[in-house]
Specification:
Elements: E1 5-6, H1 15-23, E2 66-67, E3 70-74, H2 88-105, E4 115-120, H3 126-139, E5 143-149, H4 152-157, E6 172-176, E7 185-192, E8 195-196, H5 199-214, E9 216-217, H6 221-230, E10 232-234, H7 238-252, E11 265-268, H8 276-282, H9 311-323, E12 328-332, E13 339-343, E14 348-349, H10 351-365, E15 370-373, H11 379-388, E16 392-395, H12 400-412, E17 417-421, E18 427-429, E19 435-436, H13 438-454, H14 462-465, E20 476-484, H15 496-512, E21 518-519, E22 527-531, E23 534-538, E24 546-553, H16 556-570, E25 576-577, H17 579-586
Parallel strand pairs: 4-5, 4-6, 5-10, 11-12, 15-16, 15-17
Antiparallel strand pairs: 1-9, 2-3, 3-7, 6-7, 7-8, 12-13, 13-14, 17-18, 18-19, 20-24, 20-25, 21-22, 22-23, 23-24
Helix pairs in contact: 1-2, 2-3, 2-5, 3-6, 7-8, 7-13, 15-16, 16-17
């Protein structure tokens, strides 16, 4: 297979030039043939190299690969209508762009060689993309430390761990994953010791990558591969990460070696990267893990989607708990940054229940603290956090990075917050560097089991379910997706985002004139309204031309009443596909 690199041979012998190019953002080198700046319309001169241009490279709209604070694309073919967009040359360009971004942000000087760690989940395209990422980084003169199969949280931790034996701390980290998306997709997440990169950083990197990609040239492979192999180290970092998790549980139980002895806990990894949790975390703590399932990595995900929000996945872990008479079930998503649990009776501990459980644990440790959540959490959760637990519920926006950044912001202005968590299963704690770590969330649950056992209190997972006793849950809940047809004439040439905002503004005006409905006094996303004993939230998707509608109510009849209020407002927008909502209100 052909490898690609820049016409500027970005090897270690050119490293000092590379640093100068990056630190100055090419302000005085705009004619360089290897442009790492994100500037537009730069002059370029032809390289004096004897290599020739690659005419066959397809044009790529790099910004379309952005998915919030991640990069996502189609990595392998085979699915009709989904052409490959995350190719090896594209991936190599993105990796080189991250190297440039990192050097600039960290104000690197020539004597220091930076290190970037790379890990991946179980996807079938993982090795191919790891090779491409490695070439991009080593070509830029930086060293690579490959971890192989890893979790997203472990990659962030590698920027914090102190240990020369593992080449830590690294200066940056890349996780190759597309979370729970289908097998043909893949993507990239980026970290420094300050946490995950945000949307502006990803946009910056993709703009740099576009410039690099334009200048790619065919190069002799022998020297490039030799250079790459000498700049790569391979280590088992997951053993470091799992050892830290084990130590955390032992510490919570008073340094007992096997604090989970006597507990039967089953794990469902969904054939993703989370299979380590059974053998490397639970068993060293003394737990029995027989009946755990789908621990083997398989990027085709043959059993179910690795997603704690997926009904089939949750049914699978519930059945495993009941069949094995286990005390607790734990399920992860593909890259282990999300998780959920099931108690011994098959009762799900996910979504609002998981947030309630984590809130109870955190508020025991930090009385009165603020719990930051996404926008679709229930009114019953607010009552539980504020009335029963004595905390404050700060309902913010969808998007795990939005929720985490809001908690960090609150702390910066003097409002204490120790937990940021989404209904999706993304949860981050201040004590864990605000990292959304599904394994660490489950460790917090294990800590409660272990400390209860150490204190002579048994009862298995009842220790956990007792903590959410009193959480009021809706009798009926539904999410409907109203799609915007971007080709419809009613958009009048505008964007789907503008059209969606117009829908929301019209709905807001309708609600203001309806005495049976009441807008939420504090709301950060979309239009949230109470009525008929329940509530609804209509908001604009973070990335897609879709208006998701969430409704919760005491009964389906009450939910339909709320749905009818939304239907009356949205019928005036012909580019909005309301068929899902129409079907819902008409079926009653």
């Amino acid at each position: 297979m052909t490898h690609f690199s820049s016409s500027f041979t970005y090897s270690s012998k050119n490293f000092s030039l590379f640093l100068r190019l990056v630190s100055s953002r090419l302000s005085q080198n705009r004619s360089s043939s290897f442009s790492l700046s994100k500037g537009k319309n730069k002059k370029r001169k032809e390289s004096a190299s004897s290599t020739t241009a690659v005419p066959a490279l397809d044009k790529v709209d790099f910004l379309k690969l952005q998915n919030g604070s991640d990069i996502r694309g189609v990595a392998i073919g085979g699915v009709e209508g989904e052409p490959v967009s995350l190719t090896e040359p594209v991936t190599e360009a993105i990796a080189a762009a991250f190297a440039a971004w990192l050097l600039e942000k960290k104000k690197a000087d020539a004597p220091k060689r930076f290190k970037i760690s790379i890990g991946h989940d179980s996807r079938v395209s993982a090795q191919m993309l790891q090779d491409a990422v490695s070439r991009g980084i080593t070509g830029a003169g930086l060293d690579v430390v490959q971890y192989g199969l890893a979790s997203t949280p472990a990659m962030f931790n590698s920027t914090l761990t102190e240990g020369d034996a593992f080449f830590c701390p690294v200066d940056g980290a890349i996780m190759i994953t597309a979370s729970h998306l289908p097998y043909n997709r893949n993507g990239l997440k980026f970290f420094t010791n300050a946490g995950g990169l945000g949307k502006p950083d990803i946009k910056d990197i993709l703009e740099r990558a576009a410039d690099i990609y334009k200048q790619f040239m065919v190069e002799g492979l022998t020297n490039l591969e030799k250079q790459t192999s000498t700049s790569i180290k391979r280590v088992d970092y997951m053993s470091v990460y799992t050892s830290d998790l084990v130590k955390a549980v032992r510490r919570a139980a008073g340094d007992i070696e096997k604090p989970l002895e006597g507990f039967h806990i089953v794990v469902d990894a969904g054939n993703g990267a989370g299979g380590f949790f059974a053998a490397k975390v639970l068993e060293p703590l003394g737990a029995k893990t027989s009946g755990s399932q789908f621990l083997e990595p398989d990027g085709m995900f043959p059993n179910h989607i690795p997603n704690p929000e997926d009904k089939t996945a949750m049914k699978a872990i519930i059945q495993a708990v009941l069949d094995n008479k286990a005390d607790l079930g734990i399920i992860f998503d593909t890259d282990v940054d999300r998780s959920a649990a099931v108690d011994s009776t098959g009762h799900e501990l996910n979504r609002n229940r998981l947030i309630a459980l984590m809130s109870a644990i955190v508020l025991e440790e930090h009385p009165g603290t603020t719990i930051v959540t996404d926008s679709v959490t229930s009114d019953g959760l607010t009552t539980f956090i504020e009335k029963k637990l004595g905390g404050k519920h700060h309902r913010f926006k969808r998007g795990y990075k939005n929720v985490i950044d809001e908690a960090i912001r609150l702390n910066s202005i003097g409002e204490e917050s120790h937990l940021a968590i989404e209904t999706s299963g993304h949860g981050a704690l201040k004590e864990n560097h605000w990292l959304d770590d599904g394994a660490y969330l489950m460790v917090k649950l294990l800590n409660k089991l272990a400390s209860a056992r150490a204190a002579g209190r048994g009862g298995g997972s009842k220790v956990l379910t007792d903590l959410v006793d009193g959480l009021e849950e809706p009798g009926f809940a539904v999410e409907l997706r109203l799609k915007i047809d971007q080709n419809h004439s009613d958009l009048k040439g505008g964007s789907f985002r503008d059209y969606g905002e117009a829908v929301l503004k019209h709905l807001e005006n309708r609600v203001d004139s309806d005495p049976k409905l009441q807008k939420a006094p504090v709301n950060y996303e979309g239009v949230r309204v109470s009525g008929s004993g329940g509530w609804f939230l209509l908001r604009l998707s973070l990335h897609d031309p879709v208006l998701p509608l969430n409704i919760e109510a005491p009964s389906r009849e009450d939910a339909v009443k709320l749905g009818l209020a939304v239907a009356a407002a949205t019928k005036e927008f012909p580019a909005l596909d309301t068929s899902a909502l129409d079907k819902f209100v008409q079926a009653f």
